[in-house]
Amino acid sequence: MNLADVARRAGVSSATASRALSDHPHVAVATRERVWQAARELEYVASPDATGLARGTTGRVAVVVPHLARWWFGAALEGLSGALRAAGLDLLLYRLGDAEARQAFFDELPARRRVDAVVLLGFGVDERERERLDRIGVGIVAAGTRVGSHPSVSIDEYAAGRQAMDHLLHLGHRRIGMIAAADPELDLAQPAGRSTAYHAALADAGIEPDPDLTVTVTWSPESGARAMSELLGLADPPTAVYAHSDEIALGALRTLRRAGYRVPEDVSVIGIDDHPLAAITDLSTVAQPAAEQGELAAGTVIAGLAGEPVDPLVTVPTRLVIRGTSGRPPGRRGAS
């Protein structure tokens, strides 16, 4: 299918169809929608030769994010945008909204061809979305996630979870709760890797897992606070809590302190991320360099546009940061 086919289906000239697919402001809204509908029905893929947008000539990179308010996305975006700007590349930001808006974005993606590359920040895609990405014909780079065989920059989620769990086990904790995160918009490898680490660490320590010690919540401090209340309500509460993120851990800390528990004398808490508030609240955590992941993703884009070889899989190391919320369990204070 070519542009002329789209124009005929929409009942407009090829020039109007081209302007509509480029989101030209002088095309009427109804006409633009008619052209886009025709392009979707015909599964039209824009030709870079026909549109004059051969790879490396637009000077623009599309960055797709599911969230803007959360710390990791903001930090990764800052690192990414700075590196792209230094290379003379402009950034087009696309925030995925609800399920309908997300479907529309991926439906229209192959027809856009207004960028030299696409960067996906911290969310997974299904098979249909991956196929649409493959069809656009430009470089695809993932940061904080992995998308098929496309180059990616991320941490090892399992390794990060093991750093947190092994720290608690080393301190002597045996009854460890986990507040797991569930977010369908994020890469499923995040919660999966962090949960796998929890169970593997317990197994290596010879500890039988107690399903009552795992609470799964959405990715927010409020959810972490509610989950901590649930864990404290158990007949035998945990002496330590491993949270999938610092945001969740901060909510857990609020509940503990309001309930009169001492941290870490009564209950230890550890998260993952090294959120800016982690240092202020003295939260033990596993740090991941979010801005660096964005910078490295930008470097991969720049190298790809220059025709240089790129590393298909960059794993950024994490590090354990021990602060004041993790200590030995009750009854083992002063033990060597």
Automatic annotation (TrEMBL):
It comes from the Bacteria. Keywords: DNA-binding, Transcription, Transcription regulation. Pfam families: LacI, Peripla_BP_3. The keyword Transcription applies. GO terms for molecular function: DNA-binding transcription factor activity; transcription cis-regulatory region binding. Residues 1-55 form the HTH lacI-type domain. PANTHER family: HTH-TYPE TRANSCRIPTIONAL REGULATOR GALS, LACI-RELATED TRANSCRIPTIONAL REPRESSOR. This is HTH-type transcriptional repressor CytR. It comes from Pseudonocardia autotrophica.
